[in-house]
Design goal:
Number of domains: 2
Distance between the termini: 17 Å
Largest sheet: 4 strands, mixed
Order of helices and strands: HHHHHEHEEHE
Radius of gyration: 20 Å
Length: about 230
């Protein structure tokens, strides 16, 4: 959740606050953007879906008081975020991944598709690929590109489009790409036959040779950044 930055283009935020602050807010680990007000259209507490269906978040005394004064009657209101850092996002998403998705799907040999916001995908990749806190700001995530994480090989793969291009030249993953693309090894320590490694002197550049979505039918997680804000430059 981007707080007061919601709805603003990336270029506008950079012009107003500078590139360093922009990166800290949008991609940094611990720095949340400025909070929205309790009455902003971007505050989740003003979304009827959250008000109606959310029941596992504690109530907020402050927000309940504000809503009660506004409506003229006692109105309990739950404590919802007005802004989030990557860490805040991961505090929600990683436990769900490890406690629900892993035991209920991945450990049962199922193939998992996760299509979500940029921050959620960024946090999962940080967790799965052990990306250091100080490096996560340099990770770029292409919009709409399936990023395939093989649980057994513990590496990221990309589908081969068949055009012969190096995916790391075709897609921009930023300076932190080295943490994603490493040589893929099977559990026995041998190279994964589905992967193509281009440069033994560099961290592995690996992608699936098959162009269809059947790369390892089990123990595979497909991550797709499909954020509506992707086109806002």
């Amino acid at each position: 959740m981007y707080g007061q930055l919601t709805g603003l283009s990336k270029q506008m935020v950079k012009q107003r606050h500078g590139d360093t602050q922009f990166k800290a807010w949008r991609r940094g680990y611990r720095t949340p953007p400025p909070k929205v007000s309790s009455f902003s259209q971007h505050y989740p507490g003003n979304d009827r879906r959250y008000v109606k269906y959310l029941n596992d978040v504690r109530y907020s005394a402050r927000e309940s008081l504000i809503r009660s004064i506004e409506s003229g009657r006692p109105t309990p209101h739950r404590k919802l975020p007005k802004s989030e850092s990557l860490k805040d996002c991961m505090d929600r998403t990683i436990p769900f991944f490890t406690e629900r998705i892993v035991p209920e799907a991945i450990n049962n040999g199922k193939r998992v598709l996760i299509s979500s916001s940029e921050n959620a995908i960024r946090g999962l990749l940080m967790h799965l690929c052990d990306i250091p806190e100080e490096e996560i700001v340099e990770l770029e995530i292409p919009n709409g590109l399936p990023i395939i994480y093989d649980i057994k090989s513990k590496c990221v793969k990309l589908l081969d489009s068949g055009d012969g291009q190096d995916p790391l030249e075709k897609y921009d993953f930023g300076k932190a790409a080295k943490y994603l693309f490493r040589p893929c090894l099977n559990e026995d320590g041998n190279p994964d036959e589905e992967c193509q490694i281009f440069d033994a002197d560099e961290p592995g550049k690996c992608w699936c040779r098959n162009s269809r979505l059947n790369c390892r039918s089990a123990h595979t997680v497909y991550l797709i950044y499909s954020g509506l804000d992707a086109g806002r430059n």
